[in-house]
Design a protein that fits this description.
alpha+beta, Double Stranded RNA Binding Domain, DNA polymerase, domain 1, hpI Integrase, Chain A, 3 domains, 16 helices, disordered C terminus
Length: about 425
């Protein structure tokens, strides 16, 4: 067994097989370091009560206490255990009296390291805006299905939306727009908040705060958020708008990023934060260290590979799309896309529309939903998960054809090609 020194703790790495690992200290029996699959580390204590029950107690997350401080805390707990105490049971007992606000705060602290940063940011916003105002004072142990269903109804009705403030002339003014948008009501937001809260309650169940997760029995509102798509004709129009914008001096790096998003189907930050080192031009893929579905090899077409490679000017370049100033990656894409779409006379186009459009073109070429999911980086057992070094040849072939088709449309080379309407588009047309 190792000695849990600071050097050892800092060097401990997650298990490549994705399992939780525990390293036991050679100086104090039962004291250990737990390393979770995504890298979060905690000091723990394993012990038996006087009745012989095996218990596991989390002492602290690494960084809050040094190894020596955590070992000292473990010794104090062991002294209490010798006197008949049960600190793990005491901790659970205290948690059973906690409020929803306290549970949410605990979840946010413990989720750091194993929940994706962007997801946790969204969770914090929903907790602050919707959950705490409506359920914050409730005891977690006494929550019912009715309480959570009522929260969903109240969010949908706009009770937690940011209201317009009256001004001196009797009119109203909209609240200042903050990063991430202004909180509003609606069934989609309500349903997503209930889904997130269900995750928090499952966290509470696994820690013995509650026996059953009441959110599981809540019938969530359907999320009717409509997806926008660009078919080939609209992609041609976007290409014309991009060329016109380029002639008028638009940011070339931003235009190149828009093209990259369309050619790959990647998410915004997967392109804007793309490291030059993760682009594997030889095998036409991107080797992502982290995505919404974890580490991943993503197949991209030859056309997309060539375009991304052209953005790398030197071997020392860190980002494929570096910032115009400073050492970070490029930002400011939404406004550039907005200006391009205005020239192209396209409305309601967002950066995520480009990803949806890639999927639409892929479907129009006859590719299955499973293939499209693999190209978009969704978790697909049996396709993307089993390839650890190279992309699947079938996905690579599909990516070649899709990116070439989109590139031809952007460059005005696609003449009169027919595209099969996406099912969502057909339904929208029938409603119109």
């Amino acid at each position: 067994m190792p000695s849990l020194t600071k050097r050892f703790v800092d060097s401990a790495r997650p298990d490549p097989a994705g399992k939780e690992v525990t390293h036991w200290d050679d100086a104090l029996t039962g004291f250990g370091l737990r390393v979770q699959p995504k890298g979060a580390k905690s000091f723990i204590l394993m012990y038996r009560t006087r009745e012989g029950r095996l218990r596991k107690l989390t002492i602290a997350k690494v960084g809050r206490l040094t190894p020596d401080e955590a070992r000292s805390e473990a010794k104090i707990k062991l002294g209490d255990i010798e006197k008949g105490g049960d600190p793990a049971a005491d901790k659970v007992g205290a948690r059973k009296g906690m409020t929803v606000s306290e549970l949410c705060d605990l979840y946010v602290v413990e989720a750091e390291g194993w929940v994706k940063e962007s997801t946790l940011t969204s969770d914090k916003s929903r907790i602050k805006t919707h959950v705490k105002p409506l359920l914050g004072r409730h005891k977690v142990a006494s929550l019912t299905v009715t309480d959570i269903a009522r929260m969903q109804t109240d969010i949908a009705a706009g009770k937690t939306a940011h209201k317009e403030k009256p001004v001196s002339d009797g009119s109203t003014k909209k609240p200042k727009r903050k990063r991430g948008g202004v909180a509003s009501g609606g069934k989609g937001i309500a349903a997503r908040t209930v889904g997130m809260f269900g995750t928090i309650l499952e966290f509470a169940r696994k820690r013995g705060v509650i026996v059953k997760n009441p959110a599981r029995d809540v019938e969530r509102f359907p999320d009717r958020k409509r997806k926008a798509f660009l078919d080939l004709e609209k992609i041609k129009a976007l290409g014309r708008g991009m060329r016109e914008a380029e002639d008028e001096g638009e940011n070339a790096k931003g235009l190149a990023a828009i093209r990259a998003l369309l050619l790959t189907g990647c998410r915004r930050n997967e392109i804007l934060k793309l490291s030059a080192a993760t682009l594997d031009a030889e095998n036409s893929c991107i080797q992502f260290d982290d995505t919404k579905s974890g580490a991943q090899i993503r197949a991209i077409g030859a056309t997309a590979t060539k375009h991304l490679s052209e953005q790398i000017a030197t071997k020392k370049q860190e980002w494929v799309f570096p910032a115009d100033r400073g050492n970070g990656h490029f930002v400011g894409l939404p406004r550039i896309l907005q200006r391009v779409c205005k020239k192209a006379e396209l409305k309601n186009v967002t950066i995520h529309t480009l990803r949806h459009s890639f999927a639409l073109i892929a479907e129009s070429l006859g590719y299955s939903q499973m293939t499209i999911a693999g190209l978009l980086g969704h978790s697909v057992p049996g396709i993307t998960a089993v390839y650890t070094h190279l992309p699947d040849a079938a996905l690579k072939t599909a990516a070649d054809k899709i990116s070439a088709k989109i590139a031809d449309a952007l460059d005005g080379k696609e003449a009169g090609a027919k595209v099969v309407d996406h099912p969502a588009k057909k339904r929208a047309n029938r409603r119109g």
